[in-house]
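We now fix the convention by which a protein and its fold are recorded. The integers have meaning only within a learned vocabulary of local backbone shapes. A record is reproduced here so that you can trace the correspondence yourselves:
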Amino acid sequence: MDLAIALRAFLRTVERGSITAAARDLGVSQPAVTKHLRNLERHVGARLFERSARIVRPTPQGQALYDASRGALATIDSAIEGVRRDMGAVEGPLRIHAPSCIGASHIHPIILAFQERYPAVTVDLILENRGVDLVYENFDLALRYGRPEGQDLIIRRLGAVRRIVVASPDFLARHGAMLEPADLTDVPLVTTTTALAPRDMLTLNGPNGTVEVPVRPVLRTNNAEVITATLVSGRAAGPVQQLLVTDMLADGRLVRVLPRHEMRPSEAFLVFPSVRFMRPAIRAFIDFVVPALRAIDGFDAGTRAEAA
């Protein structure tokens, strides 16, 4: 039995709660993982898992082995990857999680540019609007809006994502110029599912402080492409992350309204597990992605903002 391989299969099964998921993460078959686990149980002379039809949980002995071996394997990985780093090797897989809005419009092209520099790096880019457990779902790093919490996380603040109100020229020709928050009250709006306060109130920051405006949303969605397409079509005005509409503002398809007011910006963070050794590929990507994101119009690296 190869003890290191068996321990890796064991750790991944504990973290995923599933032999099938562990096999998928490790790139081997489910019977192979099962064999490693059985060999490991025979080797230590103890049952390491409680198995049911839906989930696999570690026994007390299994949990103790997990707690002890996780750090030991991280030390081994550190030594191996340290040698690779000294040799200048930036290679291997990266598994990245990001919100779908910024992921499709900005993270994806940044990854393509990164791979031009480091062609030996392969990337799994998962875009979805939910929080994930980086360790248990096997992510190397994630981009998140709002400061994450967790003792097993290393957090790096990227900056504040500005959110402005925009409309198309056709929309403004029909509804008139919108210079003050009250001008939004009687026009149709497209928003995200979380942008408005209760009772359909839109909160804006302006030169005289914060103001809440009652608005009339005609479409709510969690999809950035739906929002921008609706805005460009002239069917509605709406609040949007500035970095999602930079090109549309530049070519005139959209126009900023309420020039003295913005929604509260959202802080963005890079997050990665503290329990894993930071491989050269991860370090290289962080060094690459941070300045690339901070250079985007609508991304303010210096502003402190409340998460929203």
Remarks:
- Residues 60-86 form the longest helix (27 residues).
- The chain has a mean pLDDT of 86.
- The chain has two domains: 3-86, 91-308.
- The chain has nine helices and 14 strands.
